[in-house]
């Protein structure tokens, strides 16, 4: 599915300023979110990079950062419509910031239980495989928190 995105990146060549392909999966050009420098037209501080099976964007001038798909939706909606709905959902999932939700102050265990299917499996490895299958990728701190919540729930299952 990254091939779709690469095709779209290449089509931006004629739309953005200073488009350059640096490596197979790295490009940069003048940021069209902030306009980059209007005075020094050669400045090109918008980067696209591969991470896992996805392309991510970052502008070193304005700090804009998003998945390539979100960027296309914002700035080149006609191209966005060519990326499939399915691939958007998948990437939205991957990009979703779960750790903010999990570690939010006052977050209720029963909400976490529902959101992360904590009571779906009694067996830890089955549950973990289910999360991975759903493309729910969690950092260590978030995982530890969910395991804590799980300990209480599995006892009463
Ligand atoms: Zn920018």
Any guess at the CATH architecture of the largest domain? Alpha-Beta Complex
Question: Low-confidence parts, pLDDT < 50 over ≥5 residues?
Answer: none
The CATH topology assignment of the largest domain is DNA Primase, Chain A
- Give the SSE order as H and E letters: HEEEEEHHHHHHH
Calculate Rg over CA atoms.
Answer: 20 Å
- Class by SSE composition: alpha+beta
What portion of residues belong to β-strands? 5-15%
Keyword list:
157 residues; alpha+beta; DNA Primase, Chain A; 8 helices
Describe this structure in words.
The chain is an alpha+beta fold and 157 residues long. It folds into two domains: 2-93, Alpha-Beta Complex (DNA Primase, Chain A); 96-156, no CATH class. The chain is 46% helix and 15% strand. Strands 1-2-3-4-5 form a five-stranded antiparallel sheet. Strand 1 (20-23) and strand 2 (26-29) form a beta hairpin. The longest helix has 17 residues, at 140-156. The radius of gyration is 20 Å and the shape is elongated. The model has no long low-confidence stretch (mean pLDDT 85). Bound molecules: zinc ion. Residues 31, 33-34, 36, 46, 59, 61-62, 64 line the site of zinc ion. The site of zinc ion (ZN) has 9 residues, from loops.
Describe the structure in brief.
By secondary structure, the protein is an alpha+beta fold. Helices cover 46% and strands 15% of the residues.
Write the layout of secondary structure elements.
Blueprint: H1 2-11, E1 20-23, E2 26-29, E3 46-51, E4 54-59, E5 65-67, H2 68-75, H3 77-80, H4 85-95, H5 98-102, H6 109-115, H7 124-133, H8 140-156
Antiparallel strand pairs: 1-2, 2-3, 3-4, 4-5
The structure holds zinc ion.
